[in-house]
Here is the input.
Amino acid sequence: MKTERKGVMRGYKKLRVWQDARELYLLTWPVFKAIPYELSRIRSQQLASVDSVHRNIAEGYCRRSIKEYIQFLNYALASLGESVSSLDVYVDAGHISEEDFEKMDALALKLENGLKKLVESMQNKQSDGSWSDSFMIKESNATYQTVADRDSEEAIIHESMNPEIQ
Here is the structure.
């Protein structure tokens, strides 16, 4: 079983759009894994575009700059658009079933709408100045000790057990 670790840089995992993008990849993989070798370029390209969606959401979130966050959310939207365009062609060409197309397309539409709403929300925060791109941690200097304090020349920083995150 995978251990779920938490941290301020992993907050993107709470975003519904990231969860949906992850789900879209998990839905896409088995469908495209079954595509014959002759069409391996199609498989590779589709998986890359779908994989890019959740990665761009996470990368933008971790950049912490509102401008970059919006930029990466737009990259995620672009990758999603590439993926959906391909799905339209692949179902018409008979590379994927209509049933698989419907599942992926429905989730992609939900994700597209969610990403658009998130971009709009971030643009509003950018306009009104309510975005904070700080990871400032409130703690006392007592949480830091040096090896020099323990009769050594090298410095070592100890993590605070319970830092308060703003």
About this structure: The chain has two domains: 8-131, 136-166. Residues 136-166 have pLDDT under 50 and may be disordered.
